[in-house]
Amino acid sequence: MKREIKTTNDGSKTLFIRELNENYHSHHGALQEAEHVFIKNGLNLINDCEINILELGFGTGLNVLVTINEYLKTDKNHDTHYFTLEKYPINTSEIENLAYFELFDNPELKNIYQKIHQIEWEKSVEIIKGFNLHKIQCDFFELKNIDLPKINLVYYDCFGARVQPDLWEKPLFEMVSDKMSVNGLLTTYSSKGSVRRILEELHFKVEKKQGPPGKREMINATKL
């Protein structure tokens, strides 16, 4: 399906699929959403010495970039392994036009942004010292066949249930749960009641949090 580039309310860009009437990120602010959901209410709540992140899905690469930006602010006394799934990678023109590195003050992020998109799929690559990225091109439902270390942080960033309801039902959440460690955290922009009930059935402690700009609530879920 054809994708278009649009500018969101915080000045950052996103991709828009007209046939689905769906954005890759919130039109209220792509960057604000990523930082609020996945950094403030995700990465910054993890204190483990080794962080294994699973992202569904890679999309524009924005979530990887904000995660590395946050990692660069720390004392880097932990290793981070970032696994991200994507069935339909974006193209070179889209990567260049999104230009997410321009949103940050750190000049290092231009080269890092390019490297994120240039590295080979199916290989683990050290993007910067202590931060490894492994991009996997596959359907999300192939997750059960992928060998991963125990995941302690999940970025659940699938397209919305309106356009892909199967991604917000029990079978996929069950696959994700099976890959997670006890006390692992799943964070998502969604606050659907059906999602909360599924996660509780799978023995997660579910907490409603304040949502990013334009959204009242979001979900954090800790695996018990």
From TrEMBL:
- At the top level, the lineage of the source is Bacteria
Q: Tell me where the signal peptide lies.
A: none
| Record-linked InterPro entries | MnmC-like_methylTransf, SAM-dependent_MTases_sf, tRNA_MNMC2
Any Pfam family: Methyltransf_30
- Ranges for domain MnmC-like methyltransferase come to 130-223
What name appears for this protein in its UniProt entry?
A: tRNA (5-methylaminomethyl-2-thiouridine)(34)-methyltransferase MnmD
**What species is given as this protein's source?**
Chryseobacterium zhengzhouense
